């Protein structure tokens, strides 16, 4: 089901969160994700902001987002 709220959030979320990402979230994401290996399933991937932080040698990465 289409939601205008979800559409707007997805469109502007990364820009709105940029300062917070630079201040702390980016380093937290790096620490959490940099040592993963094998196959990874991310549930609730949103705008895909975590993609930058995943190791490039994962066997498989599946992103799932339940919101349309």
In short:
The chain has a two-stranded parallel sheet. Helix content is 44%, strand content 15%.
- Which regions are unreliable across 5 or more consecutive residues at pLDDT < 50? none
Kindly state the mean pLDDT as a whole number? 90
N-to-C terminal Cα separation, in Å?
7 Å
Strand order of the largest sheet: 1-2
Largest sheet properties: 2 strands, parallel
Query: What count of helical segments does DSSP give?
Result: 1
Assembly of the depicted chains: single chain
| Structural category | alpha+beta
Order of SSEs: HEE
How many domains? The number is 1
Question: What is the C-alpha radius of gyration, as a whole number of Å?
Answer: 13 Å
Measured by DSSP, the beta-strand proportion falls in 5-15%
Q: Could you say which overall geometry the principal axes of the C-alpha atoms support? A: flat
* Total strands: 2
Helix content: 40-55%
């Amino acid at each position: 089901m289409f939601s205008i709220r979800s559409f707007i959030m997805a469109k502007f979320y990364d820009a709105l969160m940029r300062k917070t990402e630079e201040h702390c979230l980016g380093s937290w994401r790096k620490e959490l994700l940099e040592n993963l290996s094998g196959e990874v399933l991310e549930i609730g991937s949103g705008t895909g902001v975590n993609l930058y932080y995943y190791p490039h040698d994962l066997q498989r990465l599946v992103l799932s987002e339940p919101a349309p």
